Structure formats: C-alpha cells, structure tokens
Amino acid sequence: MNPNKKRILIxxxxxxxxxxxxxxxxxxxxxxxxxxxxxxxxxxxxxxLPYFVGDVIESEAKLLVASPDLFEHRFNIEVHTETxxxxxxxxxxxxxxxxxxxxxxxxxxxxxxxxxxGAQPIRPPLPGIDLPDVYVLRNIPDSRKIKAATAQATRALxxxxxxxxxxxxxxxxxxxxxxxxxxxxxQVLPPLDAEMASYASERLRANGVELRxxxxxxxxxxxxxxxxxxxxxxxxxxxxxxxxxxxxxxPESTLAREAGLELGELGGIRVDSYMRTNDPAIWAVGDVVxxxxxxxxxxxxxxxxxxxxxxGRVAATAIIHDFSCGEKEALPPLVFDGVLGxxxxxVFGLTVASTGASEKLLKRLGKDFxxxxxxxxxxxxxxxxxxxxxxxxxxxxxxxxILGAQAVGEKDVTRxxxxxxxxxxxxxxxxxxxxxxxxxxxxFGAAKDPVNVAGMLAGNHQRGDFPLANWDExxxxxxxxxxxRGPDEYTRGHIPVAQNLPLESLRDRIHELPTxxxxxxxxxxxxxxxxxxxxxxxxxxxxxxxxxxxKTYQAMIWAKxxxx
Length: 564
Ligand SMILES: Cc1cc2nc3c(=O)[nH]c(=O)nc-3n(C[C@H](O)[C@H](O)[C@H](O)COP(=O)(O)OP(=O)(O)OC[C@H]3O[C@@H](n4cnc5c(N)ncnc54)[C@H](O)[C@@H]3O)c2cc1C
Known about the structure:
The protein has 564 residues and is α/β, with parallel strands linked by helices. The protein contains 16 helices and 30 strands. The strands form 8 sheets. It has a 5-stranded parallel beta sheet with strand order 3-2-1-7-18. The longest helix has 20 residues, at 305-324. The model has no long low-confidence stretch (mean pLDDT 94). The site of flavin-adenine dinucleotide has 33 residues, from helix 1, helix 2, strand 4 and helix 8.
C-alpha cells in the first residue's frame, strides 16, 4: 500500500454508498476506494423490487444497476460483497471486517470512512413474527423468497399501508392472489392527509384489495389446516398463505452507535451539511442519517433514493476536498441542504405524489396555514383523454409561502408536484405559482396550468377576492349552504343541509337568499361557485365558497368513513 495514497472506505454499496464511491473516483484518480457490502449485490434497484415480485420487471439482472466487476474495471473501485463491517476503531482509524464466506476477520485502515449502511425493515417483537412465510422486502434475496412463496399461494396479507405496502398489494393482485391490507392508522399512506389518501383507498378496494384500516397485527400462528393465521387488534383472525411486513424502516446505525458517533432522537446519524459526522474522518449518507426538513426545520428520517444519491455525491466531494487542501471555502458550495420529502407512488393506475408538509403535520406543529383544493384536468379539457388531478396546496397565512402540496390522479401527477417542489425549494410564494410560465399545448397542461390555478385560487383567497370556506367547519357552521349545480347533479348527491339554487337561475332568484346570514356556495369543483360568488357579493351578500366543491366533499366522506 502506498502510504501517500488516501484511502476511502465505504460501508454499504447501494444507493448512497455506490454513488459516493463513483463520485469520489471521478474527482480523484489516486485515492484507494473500497466498498464493503454485507449482501450479495451492490448498486441494485430496491425501488424495482415490488415490480420484480409482480413480474413487471421480468429478469433479476435488470435490477442490477452496476456489478462489482464494473466498479473494478470501469472505476478502479474495489468492491467486497458478502463482507460485513463489524466495528470501527476511531482512534486507530481502522475498521474490523468480516468475510461472510470464510468467516474470517481482518482490519482495514482508512483516511476517510463513509457509513452508507441504509435502514432495516421494522419487525416488531410480536408472537410468531419469525415464522416462515412472514416476509420483509429490502433486497434481492427477500424478493426471491417472496416470489417463490407467491407461486404456491392464493392469499396474501400485507401489514402496513405505506408506499411499499401499496406497491406490493398491486403486484400481488396482478399475480392473482387475494390480498388483504392491514393498516394501523385510519388511512393508507400516513404521510398524506386523510382526504387525499382516500383516493388510493378507494382504488385499492375497487381492485379487490380488502382494506382493513385502524387495525394492526397482534400475533401470527401456523395452523395445521388453515395455514398461516394473523390475529388482529380488533380480535379478528385472518387466514393467509403469506404475510408481508411493510411497516417502515429504522436506520441501520448500530456501527455508528457502538463507535460513539452522535445519533439523533430518531436513531439516525447526525451529520452536517457536508454529510460529516461528529468525527472529522467519518461521513454518513442515505437512510442511516437524520436530515433537516426544509419546511418545518425539524430533524427527520427520509428513507428515499433521491436524498441518498445526492448525499453520496456531497460526501464524496467534501472528502476529496479535505484530502487535497483542507480548505472548505475553496469548494463550490456542494452541500446537502435538507429535504422536502418529495415522494410518489402508483397503485392500480392511480398516482399519488406529495412534497413538503401535510396539513396534519402543520397542525401538530401549531403552524398557521391555509389550504386550497382543486380538481383540474391533467391537460386541456377539450382535448380527448383529459383526466382529473386532485390537488391540495398548503401555504402560510402570514407570508404566503408554499408549505406543501399533494396530488392524486391517473395522469401527469408528478409534474405539478415536481414544479411545486422546485418552487418550494426556492422559498416561493403562492403569487409566484400564479405567474409561473409552464409548457402548454392541448395535450400537455393547460393555458392556465394546474399549478397556475392552484396559485390563483390561493392568491385570490389571500387577496380577499375569493374567500374560501373551510370543510372542517362544515358540521358546525351557521352559514346557509347553497348548491349552485344543476338539479340533476344535485339529485345525484349533495350535502344533506344544502339547498339547490342553480347558477343559471341565481340572478332571478337572488331575493330568496338572506342578506343577514353567511352563505357558503358549493358546486362540482369550485368553478361555478366562484361565478356565483362574484354575482352575489356584487349584490351585497356575505358569501364564501367551499374549496374544491363536491369532489373534495366526496374525498372527505371517504376519509371519514374509512375505518368502517
Ligand atoms: C421495496 C422498496 C421500494 C422502494 N421504492 C422507492 C421508490 O420508489 N422511491 C424512492 O425514492 N425510494 C424507494 N425506496 C427507498 C430507497 O431504496 C432507499 O431510500 C435507498 O436505497 C437508500 O439507500 P442507502 O444507500 O442509504 O441504503 P440501502 O440501499 O439500504 O443500502 C445499504 C446497504 O448497506 C449494507 N450494509 C448495512 N450494514 C452493513 C455493514 N455493517 N457492513 C457492510 N454492509 C452493510 C446493506 O446490506 C445494504 O445493502 C424503496 C425501498 C425498498 C426496500
């Protein structure tokens, strides 16, 4: 070993670790770069695993983004798979490494150490949880086991209604299994607000998934005739052939803890904006670290591939810079500046995406916020094939800054969320959204793009041009509810206490409305109610519009009825 050569050792060879290794090599030809990976594969696509189980991705080889061979020959990076790092000796700057194939130990010295050890699926200590056919999904061997089990199975039970649970539900249904999904919360996709997540619940049910909300797993048991049995918190016994646990992950921070590195309250490693731990020779990236939320300022665990990749890049840059001159000021400002938690998931053709803070998080933190709902088409309505996107935008009441957004629909849902996420990163306000100039032709977006409309609704509300009523107050408001849709639409379904006064007859029947009482207007999505609002306020009436109209009302009803 050349003593002048710097040695970078990386623990974990998937999203964060592999990115860090490749970037370090691009920046430094002379360093020794060595990756240690406990599993059989490096740089594989965990995100594709549910689709491999469901045969959408047909070949396992497609999951392998890069092989140890490619790392060695293209990048001159040494990769040791089936090799576990078991201890860090910070004083000596060495690690203890165990070769799992030979069960032998050795010491390796480092100048810089990167912990990219990821996260572990949570397996709560419930009776029977270690029975065969109770699975988690984290890596390729896990997916092989689940795939093999599905070949013999007709029923599957998924515990947990997060992204992985929903993706697995879709893939197992596609394989012909009867799927039941259990979720402790009274909604799926807990990071979203309940009414937005309810679209996904409805889609799951419509595709034959038995959704059991507000119910958790208590114990598992193997029965000679009935197969695998799960006992739930509601005293129900469910029979199944296999169980998949998708109840979240916890950071794989044991090495760091045992080495005395600083951890946060959530169990993740604490790092600075260069991804450096409290030991100047040790960095950490990916699911194993805690990150600051850019909206709330709070420490958070965000186990997503995008942050892991970007953090790997930041750490590599900081390490190489440290080696060459030790002057951080000379660096281009490559730092990791917190997360928004921008995420997306598809379930049975419905895409659910979100960025920033949810309403429930803002409420929990006692933040002052305002919200608007809208249901525009994903492109101009006159062009064939337009599909609605249900959007919720959250913003600050006081400084009009965007705080978060959620969107659900069949087409092009990521576009508005990505645009809003970009605006959010820049600290934009709702007025900036009104003015964004975005792509439009009939088959793409609209002359008033859904993102513009979200900004316009919010802007109109804040300026007092279009006061919105809050759905949360519907049951307690003394206001008169007036539904301005046509009689046919009203007959097909309406809010019980709302009276019907169609927009077209409003001018003739305006005398029927009280001048001394608040009036809340309702229509399909909010547009006709807005026209009615303009008409009525100019006649001196006290009017507000229920944001998002009956479409939002329906989602609220689904969310409220969920646990039954
Ligand atoms: C099924 C599934 C679907 C997902 N879908 C998405 C998605 O659609 N979008 C998205 O953004 N994210 C998704 N994710 C999350 C994403 O894959 C992770 O956030 C990302 O992989 C984190 O990268 P990482 O490098 O921090 O950790 P990991 O990818 O977990 O890699 C860590 C590696 O470190 C190894 N390791 C741990 N300890 C040691 C040790 N002591 N010695 C040696 N090696 C060790 C582990 O074996 C592991 O391979 C999904 C995850 C899963 C499991």
